[in-house]
Amino acid sequence: MFLDLFGCNMWGIVLGAMTIKYMGVSRINWIYKKPSQSEDVTAKCDSNGLVRAFSKLKPDLLTTYDWEMLSSLKRYMWVWFYIFFILSVDAMNFFVKYVVWVGAESDLLKARVAIWGFVGIVTSKEYFEYMDDPNCKRVGPFFWLSSYTLMIEYGIWFKFSRGLTDAPFPWYVKVIFVTYAAVVLLGGLIAYNNDLKNNAAQKSKTNKAKYNLLDPEVEVEDTKQVLSAQNKKHK
Q: What is the DSSP string of 135-172?
């Protein structure tokens, strides 16, 4: 528990969150381009060679991804689907290893984790753009490829896990499942309530902006000032 959860995984989560927050996981232009005059002056003023080398690998635009999980019920379900997707990728590393008898020291597991680690960055970007951008009508190829790969891993686990997972869950695991289900339902109620508030605010905003032909809003100007200005122009 302490070595895995509070050791490797915790530091990986913290460092990964800091990296995502700083880098924005945006598209990186790996082709070197000659810096402009202002950038060249800034680079000359900077005497740290490591900083200059790292600046060439930074993306041109740093973007921040705000998932806004509780903003609406639809978005809440989308985000939970992707949480389940990511947790399945992580869990399959242990499930498939168990059912096909692959040792923990095998290079296949290391290669799988490395491939999923890099593919997961692009997949997360494509899924977020599909969820957040109304102009994006479908997810990208990396998400489809990741989904097919995950379904194949699920199929391997279902095929070879017969008789290996028949033991009943302990009572404390059932308590954890019930607690998670309660938290998910509570978050869904909060998201549904926020969705109703946002829809009501949007409707009231559109009703105010609607033009009423029977009772139009007319701004009356100072007619004397307008007529005198027009007379000066005619003269």
A: T--S--HHHHHHHHHHHHHHHHHHHH-TTTS-SPPPHH
Same domain, 104 and 118: yes
What range does the domain containing 48 cover?
1-64
> Using 50, 70 and 90 to split pLDDT, how confident is the model at 11?
confident
Residue 181: φ, ψ to 5° = -65, -40
Give the end of a domain, one of 43, 64, 85.
Answer: 64
Residue that has been written with the tokens 């999923």 in this structure: 116
The span from the CA of 4 to the CA of 27, in Å, is 32
Task: For the beta carbon of residue 92, count every other beta carbon within 10 angstroms.
Answer: 19
Tell me the backbone φ, ψ of residue 67, rounded to 5 degrees: -75, -25
Half-sphere exposure of 147 (CA within 13 A, CB side): 11
pTM reported for the whole predicted model: 0.62
